[in-house]
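Q: Structure tokens for this one, please.
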Amino acid sequence: MAPGPMSLIIIGIVALIIFGPKKLPEFGKAFGSSLREFKSATKGLVDDDDDKDKEVKKDEQK
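A: Here is the predicted structure, written as tokens:
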């Protein structure tokens, strides 16, 4: 079940209180770069699987 908008607001307020306004942008930047790296790594895995499938199909056609 996905959290509602009120839950996300409460989480944001608690994070602001705990970490302070100076640290939150740093955490956001780190989270964003980690997410980008994860997406590129998973895209590479999917591309590798597609390449293997193409090789298998070529071998089957021979």
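A few notes: Residues 21-61 form one domain. The chain has a mean pLDDT of 80.
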